[in-house]
Amino acid sequence: MARDTTDQTPVTSVADLTAYIAAGSKPEERFRIGTEHEKFAFFKADNSPVPYFGDASIQALLDGMAAKSGWEPIIDEGNIIGLAEHSGNGAISLEPGGQFELSGAPLENLHQTCKESNQHLAVLREVAEPLGIRFLGIGGSPKWTLDETPQMPKSRYGIMSRYMPKVGTQGLDMMYRTCTIQVNLDFSSEEDMRRKMQVSLKLQPLATALFASSPFTDGKPNGLLSWRGDIWRDTDNQRSGLLPAAFRPDFGFIDYVEWALDVPMYFVVRDGHYHDCTHVTFRQFMNGALKGEIADWQPNMGDWTNHLSTLFPDVRLKRFLEMRGADGGPWRRICALPAFWVGLLYDGEALSAAEELTRDWTFEEVGALRDAVPAQALNAKFRAGNLYDIAREAVSISRGGLKRRNRLNGDGIDESQFLAPLDEVLAKKATLAEDLLSLYNGRWNGSVDPVFAEYQY
Question: pLDDT below 50 — which residues of the chain?
């Protein structure tokens, strides 16, 4: 999230909070696609991480991007920590370890999504090249230790860094050493939200498997295919993972709100300054828990919006749904991830088929699959078969949905072309992580350094 929200509208009831999320409902013709992707910045001379400060730095990259794009700098305690497009259509933000993120504009089709990513990366390369900086597109930092990874001067990350070791063993790795590709998708009603939430939550382990690309840690294989997926198994389980309530047939906006109310907060922002609130839940905040600690202690809608952005379930509900399961990856996968989910969720026939595929999957089964996928990816067992069998069917359903959408580019080609990277995974029966391990054990002669040259943006 590039900029934390400021909205002074008072919060007076749980109904206010529920109505805020419900207001995201929109007619199908206004559905949009918002894609986010992160990448690791490194110096091409020695594959070392890029610090925040200095002549060749993350700060310099942001200043250069501001000059090129004309986007508005986002300042936190005097430091530039992101950029925002003036009309609100897109932003550049920093993850805690300097991972550079584009939060794309809400676009009508996947052709526009790919064009947006291409243009962003082209401008970024233009700014980065004179600084000797390149970018790596995989899901986990392959070489740098946690101590070697730089820390960004972003106030919310200071609070999170102090809190994470109290609630899990891998929270700092999540913050500083992972990258993702995500897509944000719309819903038309509470029922539509429920259907999409339930299908996508059940299929999120499949996305983790298909996009697995984090087999290295500290310069060697880590025994996993999606280290990032494993990290999320013990980051902060109060605010992440699966949502039991979402498996119920009557799941609705209020159920998500009631869950969110009892998750500890990270912060509130007052007069541009961040106050650590990790000792209270939002429900306690509403009941006056911060009275006497901060001057303006009453909750407002900006506090609620910010709190929603600090929750990390596999599918996150705001005024849209965020698909959060995939590792980061090369450029073609920036297009493939939204294509997979748009095909499944934005076509009625495909959504019904995906519902039928997953209808009787239980919370316990999906949890077991989520636990197995980081090490086994598509080889993870599911009932009488394995996840590879589910993947073939899900990608086929998605392809049908994209073809029926019939959104064509100038050459008359529909959006299903963007599933090609997933077709390759299925044809080879091997994930990108397995390809990387084969290279490590073969042509790379037991070194992770070649990944920086061969998988850079």
Answer: none
End-to-end, the C-alpha distance of the chain in Å comes to 22
In this prediction the pTM is: 0.97
Q: In the structure encoding, which two tokens stand for residue 99, read together?
A: 């991972």
Q: Given the structure tokens 């526009």, which residue do they identify?
A: 112
Instruction: Report the pLDDT value the prediction gives residue 2, as an integer from 0 to 100.
Output: 64
DSSP structural state of residue 134:
E
Detail the DSSP E strand segments found in 257-336: 267-270, 273-276, 312-313, 315-317, 321-323
- C-alpha span between 229 and 231 (Å, rounded): 5
Residues 49 and 135 sit within 8 Å (Cβ to Cβ): no
N residues, the chain = 457
* Domain extents in the chain: 14-455
CA distance 109 to 120: 17
Q: Does domain 14-455 have CATH number 3.30.590.20?
A: yes
Task: Decide if 135 contacts 41 (C-beta within 8 A).
Answer: yes
Let me know the angle formed at the C-alpha of 42 by 36 and 47, rounded to the nearest 5 degrees: 140
Are the C-beta atoms of 6 and 273 separated by less than 8 Å?
Answer: no
Question: Could you give phi then psi for residue 356, rounded to 5 degrees?
Answer: -65, -40
What are the Cα distances from residue 54, in Å, to 18, 50, 51, 60, 75?
A: 45, 9, 7, 7, 17
User: Who's near 311: CB < 8 A, 6+ residues apart?
Assistant: 239, 240, 260, 263
Count how many Cα atoms sit within 13 Å of the Cα of residue 448 in the half-sphere of its side chain.
19
- pLDDT for 1 equals 56
